[in-house]
């Protein structure tokens, strides 16, 4: 990578890690909220707190995370990536400060709204910056994904460790600090946002782009460019990313709660893991319980680093359509195997979880690179806006689907639904490769 590539990749790695630190810390709080709150007070109306209602609550924030990606993508093409990435980081910090002072589930929902709106602009901004500014695009996607997975894994782990010693509100407020520091770096970083597009244009590679550098200027142009996107194969790519989002959110939102009830995942008292002298020094802290499920959840997400790196490298070596077909097919099979393997005990699930963690994230560089191949550079922000509308907007319904199925049906039904998402995306990859 040249200097400009390294500067851009460094910024997006930092910001991407922050986005997913917050995103995947939220499920760690869900069992606490289930235990702490009995009802949601909406004036004279009171709603019982269940997995279904909390799934809907989380879906509000996660839904905005995706829905805001589309207007965010339009803004990226007009304002540039740096400004939106900085605003994203500041807004996420504010949301976790609000979460730290939230007295109940209504105010928690408001904090989730602030987080969702703020975080929504990151993916179109960061990925447009990578695709237009970095010449080693596949490698840039790989490192970008690795940073996201570090945030995905370390965020829940850090949250879990803080909850051993602090209340959940204090832990949430402390989590706001890293995003503020990242925002300061975003303001100071130096790079050319369109270096790769300019280099490609000099070589004649993108001479056919009708909108090489302008984005959309009006509602009519937005509609026209959207129509161009969806009358082509991008419509199939959009189906893939929707299935990816539904699977991703559906399998992760309630995973700590699901694992808690399985053999080998019972809560453990801290004092039982320590020598007697240390346990005595810790006093009341040694009587606290730790949940192995939270640590396994963090580890599963952390191993996604491998998947992101492998997926990013493979996008430069095999057709992305074939990669989509194979990787999503694997996710469908893993969903069907999840409960049978989990019921075998702790050790077998660790091996299975490592495979699932890698497979869950190997798909991301494939569909990110597919979007770049199927869209013009000038509306790349709009294209990624639609992409993350599908991944995190439509995909946010995966949390509500999971909560509803767990409340009114059972875990095997949930994993059957998740398998269907994976197989639909895999079949779509086959169609794309044949076209």
What's the N-to-C terminus distance? 33 Å
Number of helices: 21
As for the CATH topology of the largest domain, it is Growth Hormone, Chain: A
What percentage of the residues does DSSP assign to strands (E)? under 5%
Number of domains: 2
> What is the annotated CATH architecture of the largest domain?
Up-down Bundle
Mean pLDDT, nearest integer?
81
Q: Please outline the major beta sheet.
A: 2 strands, antiparallel
Structural class: mainly alpha
Question: CATH class of the largest domain, anyone?
Answer: Mainly Alpha
- Rg over CA atoms, rounded to whole Å, is 22 Å
Summarize the structure.
The protein is mainly alpha-helical.
Write up this protein.
The chain has 21 helices and four strands. It is mainly α and 435 residues long. It has two domains: 1-208, MFS general substrate transporter like domains (Growth Hormone, Chain: A), CATH 1.20.1250; 216-434, MFS general substrate transporter like domains (Growth Hormone, Chain: A), CATH 1.20.1250.20. It has a two-stranded antiparallel sheet with strand order 1-2. Strand 1 and strand 2 form a beta hairpin. The longest helix is centred in the N-terminal third of the chain and has 34 residues, at 3-36. The protein is globular. The two termini are 33 Å apart.
Highlighted features:
single chain; 435 residues; mainly alpha; Growth Hormone, Chain: A; 2 domains; two-stranded antiparallel ribbon; 21 helices; 4 strands; MFS_dom; MFS_Transporters
